[in-house]
């Protein structure tokens, strides 16, 4: 008996090492698995799992493994005879459901996986097969392995099946992986039904079964695949239907890496469509320019080398197959200044002919491999030249002639040194990934007499700047909402200048002496063929600096076009201000804005459940259920819509109120559209031009798109949106991340030009309840029953006017309930739960909006949002007052000093006359 058991144990170990396919996740007790006792028709106790597993729109916190080949989320399954999905009584998955009896042979193992190595194996399975998930990082996985399991009554002891099911999730998306070794039997003895493999939602209608289920062909699952790896199947399980990975993205492609340097050189993997036999050519066009080849490397991937693009931000990428089908996607380009990890390589500005240059770096900062020179000539085509290979020291000597050609008119040449380094290895088995890092440096002749001439020449050729500077939103006299020691990253339509800010005092000193921080126009502005922007610099007292040396300047080429900006702004700056004494000439054509035209923008928005404040300061409560026009600026073709919905998706009970769950913003065609939404399970989705953006939780993200700058901190608790046209949004999530507030400020330029729930901005509260047809209705804002039916509901959008992107076959109709009636605030705040009432009282004090929020949603955090919103508005208004008072003071002091001057002049004239008089008397007397 013992020896038989030992032999069988040995055989089973042996088999585990040599028979199961290499794509199985390591299993068995030696890998930390729990083993089920030998049994027939049993299942485990509910296993509490360390995550919430999303499955068919719902989430589950425990699971059960059944001997007969299932993992279920509600009840265990004892049934040995597979019943056809859909079934009401089962929620779960099955790689192979039939009558398994481990008393006759085989083992069933299972475990939760949280070790990084195994998770990274699972990650690469998903990354390699699911388009759009190239950066998928699972937080959790669970594996169950049916190892050499026998039938109920083996007629032949050697007929054994081995298969494995893996569940994994990153907390938002979830996947099931089925791994099959050779399957030897498809139907157990005693029963008449062949095995079934698939997924069942448990609602009696939603399910998915693998081909071959209920036929002898079920054995084919071990030889076929939905990801072209025989024996392996991967399914997306979080959505309302099971999804296959490949070729599912419709017209969209995914690019990896997604953020690259703008000067090109990186290899980019493209996935989306299948590159099956028959696809002969795959071509990429970058920013709609000429096509380059995309080399097909796998059935679901091709690869191209990124080219130089003179633009920081979103770059459109099109993939064309066989000159017939076109797929679209995008990539973000960045400048070196965004990269924090590059230190040690000194920027240098000058070199002379045949000079030896010693270039040093800090070996701790990067393990240097190859050194390249990337040169751009006047026509902006780039040449990549390998300078040194396999560098290991922390320095290199280069001759300036290697870097710079002194013949012809190459002074405008722009060069980069690029290092190709060995980067961290990623998942095991994946190749070492190359990546370009670079520190740019500029090489040109510093010849003062030439510079003088060149500066004068440049000055003569520049257009008059006045009309350009006046077309731009003005600089603020002082930066708002800042304890000046913590400069804000952005405000209104300005973002902190990466080159001059408190963390870079030296650069500030070099280019804007006296400045503490500078801000740049968030996005560019097109005028007469120029792409203009400007810079506003502030001193340590938070006062706007004007003129040289510290003042900000007009940019005739916005800084997002790096090369243009360099040639049009930076180089002339060197010619005029650094290499000759003509800085006044530079500022003559690139003046600072003095802030005179500035008028305070107005705040507005919506928060809690659900209170709105208009630009004119009217406050009202409106709990609609649907999608509404929030703000419309028709003159700019600018539309903002919000989605209002109950806090929790459960249909258990009629909700009392609604919260903000989505926002969509669309500008003119040259502005990228943007959408943020929390779905029914409070998963966050962000779309840009209809394309889903994946968020990095490791870094703050600063994304510059066409016409918008987006900032998302790594904590993902808020989103800052800055529009070039002078509109700013802050989307701030509740602590539970189940709703958000929208806070917006707009420029006074838009007076009398706005409509929607945020009212008609004209400094008159009385007409803020204006309907879409232009009729203004007179309502008491305190009577929210009237506000609901006589104003709010009129702003409901319809399928034609909606600018939201919908997924999963949903439409605008799925998000509207026209019959919904909220509880009205005018009927009083009503707590059925006395504990909640106490908590609410503590949180809100006497703030009735906050109390109402908590009573209507049963969630304290929603009340907190209202408090946060009101505080934001209050701080903003205080800041505006502070800024206005400094402006008045400046004017006042100027006047005073004039008065003093006049007084003194009169005094001196008088004194002089007196003096003459005295003198004359004196003389007369003499
Ligand atoms: C992984 O799981 C084991 C067993 O459940 C647990 O003891 C351990 O703390 C977990 N490790 C991490 C990093 O969560
Ligand atoms: C399943 O079978 C159907 C009908 O035979 C076929 O069209 C489909 O391609 C098969 N699916 C897979 C994944 O093999
Ligand atoms: C998933 O959620 C959507 C929207 O809430 C709903 O329409 C759909 O019926 C749900 N599907 C399942 C399988 O629960
Ligand atoms: C550089 O190093 C790589 C890897 O160590 C080696 O294969 C290659 O031959 C080396 N190249 C030169 C030029 O030494
Ligand atoms: C707004 O859109 C219309 C129609 O597409 C277009 O004719 C008009 O020029 C746009 N307005 C602006 C300010 O671009
Ligand atoms: C606008 O709509 C309201 C409500 O339907 C209606 O009472 C009013 O007469 C309309 N005004 C105009 C000018 O059509
Ligand atoms: C969407 O709906 C259409 C028709 O209603 C249907 O044919 C299609 O299969 C659905 N697609 C998805 C992904 O649900």
Automatic annotation (TrEMBL):
Location (main, coarse): membrane
Residue intervals of the VWFD domain: 602-803
Signal peptide: 1-20
Compartments, as annotated in UniProt: Membrane
Protein name (Swiss-Prot/TrEMBL): Uncharacterized protein
Coiled-coil stretches: none
Keyword list, A-Z: Disulfide bond, Membrane, Signal, Transmembrane, Transmembrane helix
TM regions (residue ranges): 900-923
AMOP domain residues: 447-590
Positions of the NIDO domain: 95-240
One example of a Gene Ontology biological process annotation: cell-matrix adhesion
A GO cellular component annotation in the UniProt record: membrane
